[in-house]
Structure formats: C-alpha cells, structure tokens
Description:
Blueprint: E1 6-14, E2 17-19, E3 24-25, E4 31-33, E5 37-40, E6 45-50, E7 55-58, E8 63-72, E9 77-92, H1 95-98, E10 100-101, E11 104-105, E12 108-111, E13 115-120, E14 123-129, E15 132-139, E16 142-147, E17 152-155, E18 160-164, E19 174-175, H2 178-189, E20 204-206, E21 211-212, H3 222-232, H4 237-245
Parallel strand pairs: 9-12
Antiparallel strand pairs: 1-4, 1-6, 1-20, 2-3, 2-5, 5-8, 6-7, 7-9, 8-9, 9-14, 10-11, 12-13, 13-16, 14-15, 15-18, 16-17, 18-19, 20-21
Amino acid sequence: PQPGTHVGTTTAVRPGVTAGVDEHIVYIGASVPYGEKFKTDSTGVIHILFMDQSSMTLGPNSELIINEFVFDSEARRGSIAVNLVKGALRVVGGFISKFSNPQGFSAARVQTATATIGIRGGISMIDQNGQNTSAVFLFGQQLQVAGLNGQTLNITRPGFGSTIGANGSPSAPFRASPDQLANLLQRFGGGSGTTAPNTPPSPLISTNGSPIGSNPNTSIAPDRTQQTSSQVNNQTPQGALRHLLGTEPNPHQS
C-alpha cells in the first residue's frame, strides 16, 4: 500500500502516545496509516486494531513502526509486519496469522534489532531492550523465533519463551515465571509510572469507556479474544493466562 493508507484504528489509548514525524498526539478512534511510527512515554499505552482483526498493544517507553500491511478481506489472507524499535509489545493474531496454504502458514511478524518473531494465530508478548529481545508465547498455535544468525526456534507450549542477544542466537525455550508474566501484563494495562507519590497511573481507556486493567480477564480486549478463541480452539485466552499466572477467574468484563 501507499504511505498513509488506512490499515487500522486506535481502539484504546492512555495519554503519552505520539505518532508521525511531527509527533502529534494520538487519540482513541484515530485512523492508523501504513508506515506510521508510534512512540510512548513512561505512562503511554496504545492498542491498535488492524483491518484483519489482528491487534497490538504497545507498552510504555516503546517505539513501533508499521512496516507492512496487505489484506484481502474476501480471502482473509495477507501479510503484516512491524518493527519494534524498543519497548514491549503484545500481539493478538488475526485472520492473516490464521491463513494456511500448501506453501505453509502465514504469520504476524515483529522485527527487532536481533530477531524476527512470527506469531501464528494466538497471543504473544515481545520485549526489546537494547540488543536483547525476549518473546513469550501465551496462547494459540505457535511462536517462531528467528535470530540474525539464521537459527530458528518454534515454541508451541503456552508460558514458554526465548531470548535473543546481540549474537543473534535464540536461547533454548524456557518457562516464564508468573512474576515475569504479571510484570509484562502490568506494563500493558497498569503502566510503570505515576503522576504523584502513591498515586496510581491513569487506566488505559477502551472504546466502550471502561478501564482496561492489568487483570488478564480484562487487559486483552475480551471481545477480540473471544473471536480468536472461537476460531482457534475451545480454550479461552483468558483461561490460559489465568492458568499461567495462577489466578482465579474474575467475572468482571470491560
């Protein structure tokens, strides 16, 4: 597509998000153009819903560029790729990442300084810090990690991840601890900064006016993940996250 072509919409924003070369302020409901660059400060968080129903949440102190988006709505196939320059990103795969053909599976791709991360169908979290990339698979079909040295690794077990350092070599899969998962989820929902001592950060506001907190049952857009779970299998993403974090179901829905 041409630069500026509409590829998605901002469905949730917490103040502290800018976009474009002019670094204009981003608001809920804004059109997301192809090639856009997003930046968040210490409290900013943005949730983007793409036209194929993929969604990405960019955490505080992060930077993201939309490198590629092509989608055929009738065939429900295409390609999507972003560059995570720094910070944390949560990806929920949409139709593009679920399409399969005789040549293989497509995936939502996240490029970092040291790796390319491919998400098939489900939910993954990626953290880019300097020359270190870490990726954790939460739900779905698989997470593929490809290092700059050409080594690849497929992770299919929820709660497992890999790290890639400056040498571009993916580590062996490891189980992420509940504390690690909770810390990542908190960055997408609750944030890391405060406006005053003992004052919690403002909540991420969704398009229906309800706060999106750090609770796994409300922090990954329940309406979006409900659709994902019905298309992938009978296990719900909320249940998978509660199992990984060791928490009980919460009846609240945003």
